[in-house]
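## Example pair
The file below holds two records. Each record gives the amino-acid sequence first, followed by its structure token line.
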Amino acid sequence: MALILLEGLDRTGKSTVAQIFKDQGYEVLHMSAPSKDFFQPGYVGPSYVDEMVELLASAATRDIVLDRSHYGELIWPTVFNRKPLLSEDDIEVLREIEDAVGVQRILMTDNNLELHWQRCVENNEPLSKSQFLKARALYERMADKYGFEKKTLKDFIDVPTKQNQADGAVSEALNKAGTSMSNADKNIQKESHDIPELQKLEKANVINDVLSKRLIKAKGPIYDELENDIRCFLREKLGKIFGESTNNDFSKDEIQLLKLFCERLKEKENKR
């Protein structure tokens, strides 16, 4: 299945592009700012990172487009001067789940800064000019660091018909991640005996690509131990792909294990 992350400032066309993907059969989830509950003193419910682990893992069994995502925690806390709910280490762990289920990361942008700002003003977006410029710079930095493809609305809608959108610009973008299929393709897939094997091979290639490099950039005994734990988890997942199991979903135990990785990272941060 597929996971598409749409990030970017207001008025860059994220929701329009999300609708294009929805027309192809994707489920669109519009993410807003994190719940205020997370910031309440004494809050004891699931953490924001726990919620994101479950959401991202669910993309193993369904095609999802996130209109905004957890990467916003690298942007808006700095812009609005609040405490972030995710650290960069949390992001790295979540990225492993993204890569395991198959992800395409897209940053929607507008090359004309002044026209973009004017649209924000006309639509009463809650940003000052300085906040707008800061967010724009942070998004550019995020895209470069975390491998987001920079797209403009024209990349998606500058085609004659909706079907051509699916077969042209949008399809080309999705094919780069190896996750695109039209609704017709999905029907063919259900009827074919060969496609499931191709899916398994594609997923195995993604996992092998992830395992080909160090997963966590930070160094130290605890990070090295966590690096080994995640690699063991991914190798086990790889073994299941080529074994008897045909279930491509993350089990409850696997999701719990991923949550445990996140908790261990947080414990490490608290000891610094």
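Second record, same layout:
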Amino acid sequence: MDMDSSLFTHNSSLKVTLLGTGTSGGVPSLGCQCEVCRSQDPRDHRLRCVALVESATTRILIDCGPDLREQLLREHVTGLDAVCLTHPHCDHLDGLDDLQGLTVFSRQELPFYSSEENLRVVHERFGYVDQLKYLSDGSPRWSVPQLSYRAVTEPFDVNGVRVVPLKLFHGKAATYGYRIGSLAYICDCSRIPDETYAQLEGVTDVVLDALRWKAHPTHFNIFQAEDEFHRIGARHAWLTHLTHDILYERDSKLVAPGCTLAYDGLTFNFDA
């Protein structure tokens, strides 16, 4: 779809759409007949976590989980300028092959950013993307995603949009969040290192891992996410990566002021 400048207000030149807000298995959970999994409220139907950040000229995808094709079709996305991977768990990476549907039409490599360690795992799991990248004559093989892997530790620009990698911990695993303008995207996180808080100064909106009410060893629960929201000092927190323990109509009334349970398709503007 062509960029529509009417999507961006005068004071907020960037927009984020939460394409998915569910935990690793999605919601409804396969085989489950709980109240949430039987809910007819579309806010209780959660695909795996992916976010799309847009300026008037640029689209940046955060993660590419197994529901990616459905998510991009739903939002009429026909092109991207970059992908930023938080970590290589299946629910955040396994839609990588669907990026081929975009690069085959753009006829351009798609920049794919993450940490060196994360990209090592991507190469291991999607080795065919490297092995089949070129035809025998040296031209691109458009039947596989044409990706330009870029290991980053410092801020970088995508068409003039500044992206700041944020070091996080998901249990013992080191992962990335990303700051873009006044937005911070912190998904799959159980601890924010002290040095990362300095990079969060001035953030007004934070999309924040908040798995459920009950404690979990590798994710913030909702109480912990509320505490992190207050420590960061943001204006608003959008709680994501939600399990089937969370019934939207019931639990949205219980979260702290300034916090909102996110849902698939949620869109808001923020300052560049």
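Notes on the second record: The CA atoms of residues 23 and 241 lie 5 Å apart. Confidence is low (pLDDT under 50) at residues 1-12.
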